[in-house]
Amino acid sequence: MINDRLKKIETEAKTCIDQADNLQELEMIKIKYLGRKGEITSILRSVGSADAELRPVIGNLTNQVKIRIEELLNQKISMLEDHAFEDSLRQGGLDVTLPGKEFKTGTRHPMRITLDEIKEIFLSMGFRVVGGPEIEWDVYNFDMLNIPKDHPARNQGDTFYITDRLTLRTQTSSIQVRHMLLHKPPIRIVAPGRVYRVDEMDSTHSPMFHQLEGLVIDKGVTLGNLKYTLETFFNALYGDGTKIRFRPHHFQFTEPSAEVDVSCFSCGGKGCGICHQEGWIESLGCGMVHPNVLSMCNINPDEYSGFAFGMGLERMAMHKFKIDSLKHFFENDIRFLNQF
Ligand SMILES: [Zn+2]
User: Residue 117: what pLDDT?
Assistant: First the structure.
């Protein structure tokens, strides 16, 4: 009789499991037959009240049915789970067979590429690369560069002041002062770095930009040495045959001073869009170090002379990569940066 009852339960459970189409339903079936108050469990509980010789038989039969129902349940659960996974794939869920995400590797920033190339050239010419602080005393940024107290470059409208005496350096020239105070000639250095001016951001201006300063001090240094040095530099940077020309200019810390134009690297001097049909491109400022600057840095101007030059690195990079706006360097647009 117990046998018939077990068969009935098994058949009934099998039908229920076959018809179930979700995991909740299967959970209910499991509770109904195998749960604490389930039909199989109650038979197992009643074994104790059966005749002694029948107990192992009933127990055994019941357990076998229990195992078969459990198997059916587990098979159906994994079948439904497979279907659910396939459904989620169809609805755009995770597909583990797709290739993994590609990790993007960075590239060197165009400013870094330009600076490294320029540094390499000067290193090959026997220069040392030195640095200095971006927060600078006005003494190094102005006074010792022969810039008087009433000079317009010191205006609050042009210079970022932290205190009356401390500024964000407006030029890398402050580094040459620091270097001369600590080192005796001969001196041959380039000093790249960030500088700061009060400026609105546009295609040619930025409140922060990069300069590279050069300084040579020795006995008998002349304007000819300056011209030769810059010619050698620009021939290395833009190729053999690059010409330079000096235009007279004024800087406080050099005398005489000049602005330097370079023959257009794009058209070779014939005139094109890059050089605005001029054939020449304005490239840097330079001059012979003012005797006042040498004296203030404890270098005897009667014994030593020297030259200095300073270039805007953004401008050099814009020329090198034919970039039309300085803003691109600072916006960190990945579409721009990926091109380098
Ligand atoms: Zn040109």
Answer: 96
Distance (Å) from CA 281 to ligand 1 centroid: 8
Q: How far is the CA of 276 from the centre of ligand 1 (A)?
A: 7
What are the structure tokens assigned to 179, written together? 């270097």
Q: Does residue 82 share a domain with residue 145? A: no
Q: Among residues 62, 90, 118, which one ends one of the domains?
A: 90
Reported pTM:
0.69
pLDDT tens by residue, 204-214: 889 999 999 99
78 and 152 assigned to the same domain:
no
CA distances from 111 to 24, 29, 108, 114 (A): 62, 70, 8, 5
Q: Is the pLDDT of residue 89 over 80?
A: no
Give the end-to-end CA distance of the chain in Å, rounded to a whole number: 85
| CATH code, 119 | 3.30.930.10
Q: What is the whole-number distance in angstroms between the Cα of residue 134 and the centre of ligand 1? A: 35
pLDDT in tens, 238-264: 889 999 999 999 999 999 999 999 998
Structural contact between residues 226 and 153, judged by C-beta atoms closer than 8 angstroms: no
Ligand 1 center from residue 256 Cα (angstroms): 28
Residue 101 is assigned to a structural domain of this protein = no
Structure tokens given for 15: 């039908």
Q: What is the pLDDT of residues 38-75, one digit of tens each?
A: 888 888 888 878 888 888 888 888 888 889 999 999 99
If asked whether residues 229 and 146 sit together in one domain, one would say yes
Which residue range forms the structural domain that includes residue 240?
Answer: 110-337
